[in-house]
Amino acid sequence: MIRAVYPGSFDPITNGHIYIAERASSLFDELCVAVLHNPQKRATFSVDERQAMAREATSHLPNVRIKSFEGLLVDFMRKEQSRIIIRGLRALSDFEYEFQLALMNRQLAPEIETLFIVTDAQYSYLSSRAIKEVFHFGGSVQGMVPPGVFRRLRERFPPKNSFRE
Ligand code: PNS
User: Fold this and answer.
1) Is-above-0.85 flag for pTM?
2) Burial label, 92 (beta-carbon count in 10 A; 0-12, 13-18, 19+)
């Protein structure tokens, strides 16, 4: 049984994240989407909300489980008995940060491997931060987030004008 872990802030999960989860879940027996709970950093959505959105958005993938973690990712990996970290890559600009993260994790836990899955071109410009900003200022985020996330964005940032779909 090979279990991979796809960690992230997922604040909120986007269609780009879902694409990576779909591809990763087809490669392994089980994929654990691990939502970071970082009490030092204020997220837009609580860890429970982020987990709920991720759960709804991946309900079509039977081998995906959603969990949260606090502290070091490598400690969570060991607890989950997984040696595979999945990360998505959008553009070259992601690489420096991801390279640092992967090497730090390898230093901490040499038995764990980080595998990168390249996003689809249609999602290459998406980020949770940009989506929240666009939504907040009334822009359309159609095709960027799943329906459950759209609903929660609307609750969090009530509409200011009619341009938003
Ligand atoms: O979606 P993100 O914010 O790019 O995900 C980053 C994440 C959660 C993978 C990373 O910040 C993380 O693993 N944090 C847990 C703390 C940790 O293990 N740090 C050591 C590596 S620098």
Assistant:
1) yes
2) exposed
